[in-house]
Amino acid sequence: MQEKKVLLEVNNLKKYFPVKTGMFAKEKSFVKAVDDVSFHIRQGETLGLVGESGCGKTTTGRTIMKLYEPTSGQIIYDGKNIEALSEKQMVPYRKRLQMIFQDPYASLNPRMTVGDIIGEAIEIHKLMGKKERQERVLELLNTVGLNRDHGARYPHEFSGGQRQRIGIARSLAVNPDFIVCDEPISALDVSIQAQIVNMLEELQEKLNLTYLFIAHDLSMVKHISNRIGVMYLGKLVEIGSSNDLYNKPLHPYTKALLSAIPIPDPNLAEKNKRIILQGETPSPIDPKPGCRFKDRCKYAKEKCGIEEPRLKIVEGGRSVACHLF
Ligand code: SF4
């Protein structure tokens, strides 16, 4: 079968935030939130991006969207490097790249009706007249399982799951082909999470969407992702197919993340003992040389404190950044 085209390619992406440190906050340091991260996503594919809070996954998503200016690196979208584009030059891409946010309540303007929220981007991009826009909003409400009456109501009148449906309808309004889903189910009840994931999968199939699906835990990305990338302290430490990562995690950090997923079968759970990580996640401000996971890794050796492991292909198209491989 012919492989689909690469829609997004991220090369050596960095996003550093300056911070003042030292006595009287006179020294300038950097939070290296995203530090030399590279990956690609094919059209119609979902790449899951996981890691603990503060690992840089959300900053990666926001930098790709150009909500943050990249410090350096390339963001090649459909063959064009959008990294250096001005706000004006980005306008055509703003329609194609959309985002769904973690907190569907905070991201919806409480003073606007749901219909106006969903139709806002159509109005900003001047894509349709008023009547056509209203029809499009009704169609979108229907697409995400809401009804026409919901369009006249306000966000506070809805449950968390319904609010996330509104956020999804808003993201679809301008016919995007790529959506960054930034922890879209983390704030929802477990019973609602599966509904939202199923809906996103159906929409992907129907509209040929490509997703970057960000989550803090591997169980949340398992079903929806074709491939998964694992981030630790600004670095991508492992990336591979969803099946490979679940069945045979290679990086010690991926192993620890996977072992934290509860297994309902007590026999299997007994075999798969949870790996408790020792110590705290180190500060992302001017990280020390070597592997960033070294202070918490039981396999750490001398080289790990000196040389930073590079992401390299190890087997079957998967890559890992660890001196054990
Ligand atoms: Fe552990 Fe060393 Fe591998 Fe880092 S490079 S994960 S410290 S073994």
From TrEMBL:
<protein>
    <submittedName>
        <fullName>Oligopeptide transport system ATP-binding protein</fullName>
    </submittedName>
</protein>
<keyword id="KW-0547">Nucleotide-binding</keyword>
<dbReference type="InterPro" id="IPR017871">
    <property type="entry name" value="ABC_transporter-like_CS"/>
</dbReference>
<dbReference type="GO" id="GO:0055085">
    <property type="term" value="P:transmembrane transport"/>
</dbReference>
<dbReference type="InterPro" id="IPR027417">
    <property type="entry name" value="P-loop_NTPase"/>
</dbReference>
<dbReference type="InterPro" id="IPR003439">
    <property type="entry name" value="ABC_transporter-like_ATP-bd"/>
</dbReference>
<dbReference type="InterPro" id="IPR013563">
    <property type="entry name" value="Oligopep_ABC_C"/>
</dbReference>
<keyword id="KW-0067">ATP-binding</keyword>
<dbReference type="GO" id="GO:0015833">
    <property type="term" value="P:peptide transport"/>
</dbReference>
<dbReference type="Pfam" id="PF08352">
    <property type="entry name" value="oligo_HPY"/>
</dbReference>
<dbReference type="InterPro" id="IPR050319">
    <property type="entry name" value="ABC_transp_ATP-bind"/>
</dbReference>
<dbReference type="Pfam" id="PF00005">
    <property type="entry name" value="ABC_tran"/>
</dbReference>
<feature type="domain" description="ABC transporter">
    <location>
        <begin position="8"/>
        <end position="258"/>
    </location>
</feature>
<dbReference type="GO" id="GO:0016887">
    <property type="term" value="F:ATP hydrolysis activity"/>
</dbReference>
<keyword id="KW-0813">Transport</keyword>
<comment type="similarity">
    <text>Belongs to the ABC transporter superfamily.</text>
</comment>
<dbReference type="InterPro" id="IPR003593">
    <property type="entry name" value="AAA+_ATPase"/>
</dbReference>
<dbReference type="GO" id="GO:0005524">
    <property type="term" value="F:ATP binding"/>
</dbReference>
